[in-house]
Amino acid sequence: MPRDGKNITLPQVQHALMTALHMDNLAAGSITSTLRPLCRKDGTFDLVDTRRHNVIEHDSSFTRLDFRQGDNYTFQPDMLQAMIDDADGGPVTLRSLAKTFIRRGKESRAAGAPRLPLNLWFIHVLQAVSVMNTAQTDGILTKEVLQAVYAEERFPDVILNNPKPRTLFTQLGNALGMMRFVIFGP
Fold it and tell me: What is the spatial distance between Cα 23 and Cα 164, in angstroms, rounded to a whole number?
């Protein structure tokens, strides 16, 4: 992958996901396909393009403000703390992610954001559990893992050194598990 974040190709992203994060081909391909609308005619995109609103970046983010709130790019430490508070101070689980999902949806609508279109809602659900799936840490995310991923924007060794395959099926299973709590209550 280009170190400057420019002229990235979809095959480069897919290879990086498979190599660094131990994703199988289907999982890496599925994630990579969401980037297709960002590509220029030459098949490349720049990392900054991922910030384009309503492509993969959307309202109701767990750790960033909504587009209408002015700065939907900058990590908000208080929002990460709210996610941890949703887990009653303990590790984040699918149950607590459901609380965060519900809370952020309400906060987003209160800030004036429209409901997400179906395609972005589905991306939102998958993104809500993406760190859980990527971490493969037995269904829990510690404060340390959350801090590294969201605040420091890096994957800690507990994730990078875990060779357990990350699959689309575990991603979908996590999404369904979280949505069970969203629908029937956390």
Answer: 9
**Global confidence as pTM:** 0.86
Report in angstroms the alpha-carbon separations of 130 from 122, 159, 169.
12, 12, 12
**Pair 73, 64: CB distance under 8 Å:** yes
Q: H-helix or E-strand containing 172?
A: helix 168-184
Output b/e per residue, 77-95; b: 16+ Cβ within 10 A. eebbebbbebbeeebbbbb
Of 40, 31, 37, 41, nearest to 53 (Cα)? 37
pLDDT band at 45 (very low <50, low <70, confident <90, very high): very high
Q: Which of the 8 DSSP states describes residue 67?
A: G
Lookup: tokens for 184 = 């029937």
